[in-house]
C-alpha cells in the first residue's frame, strides 16, 4: 500500500513538472515522425488524418489533451496500453482496437507523443505545453491497464474538458 502511494505521488509530481515546465523549446521531430510512420501510420495515415471507421484522426485531440495533466496521462496510456471500443471523434464513430505499444522504450513513446502534439496537431496545442519526457512515460508504465479502461478514461477527460 505504501509503495503504491509513493508511486502515485511520483507520477503526479512528474506530470505536474511536465505541465508546468513552460513552453516547449524547438525540437527535432525526425525521430518521432519516423517512429510514427513505422508504428502508427498504417491505421492513422502518414499525416494523422485517420481512416473512417478504423482509426480516428490525430490532428486535433493530442494537441488539446497535452495541455492538462489528465490529458497528458491519457495520451501516454493510449500508447502504452492501447485502446479499444467505440468512440466519437470529429463527429464520426470509430470502433477499433488500437494495440498497446508497451514494447517500445519510454524515449520512443515520448518521441511519438511529441510528434503528435507538436507537429500533427500543432494547430490545436496551447503555447505553454511541455514536451513529453521518457521519465513521464516510465512513471505510467508501472500501471496495469486494459484498452477498455483507457477508453473510459478518454470519456472522462473529454467530459472534464466540456466536450
Automatic annotation (TrEMBL):
Pfam families: Cytochrom_C. It comes from the Bacteria. Keywords: Heme, Iron, Metal-binding, Signal. GO terms for molecular function: electron transfer activity; heme binding; metal ion binding. Residues 1-26 form the signal peptide. Residues 27-120 form the Cytochrome c domain. The keyword Transmembrane helix does not apply. The keyword Iron applies. InterPro entries: Cyt_c-like_dom, Cyt_c-like_dom_sf, Cytochrome_c-type_DH. This is Cytochrome c.
Amino acid at each position: 500500500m505504501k509503495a503504491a502511494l509513493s508511486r502515485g505521488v511520483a507520477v503526479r509530481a512528474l506530470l505536474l513538472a511536465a505541465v508546468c515546465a513552460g513552453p516547449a523549446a524547438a525540437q527535432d521531430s525526425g525521430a518521432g515522425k519516423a517512429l510514427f510512420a513505422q508504428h502508427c501510420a498504417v491505421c492513422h495515415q502518414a499525416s494523422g488524418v485517420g481512416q473512417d471507421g478504423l482509426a480516428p484522426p490525430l490532428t486535433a485531440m493530442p494537441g488539446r489533451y497535452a495541455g492538462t495533466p489528465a490529458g497528458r496521462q491519457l495520451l501516454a496510456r493510449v500508447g502504452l496500453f492501447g485502446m479499444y471500443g467505440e468512440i466519437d471523434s470529429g463527429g464520426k464513430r470509430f470502433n477499433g482496437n488500437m494495440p498497446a505499444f508497451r514494447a517500445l522504450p519510454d524515449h520512443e513513446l515520448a518521441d511519438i507523443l511529441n510528434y503528435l502534439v507538436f507537429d500533427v496537431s500543432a494547430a490545436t496545442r496551447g503555447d505553454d505545453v511541455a514536451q513529453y519526457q521518457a521519465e513521464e512515460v516510465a512513471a505510467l508504465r508501472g500501471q496495469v491497464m486494459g484498452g477498455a479502461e483507457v477508453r473510459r478514461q478518454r470519456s472522462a477527460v473529454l467530459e472534464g474538458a466540456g466536450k
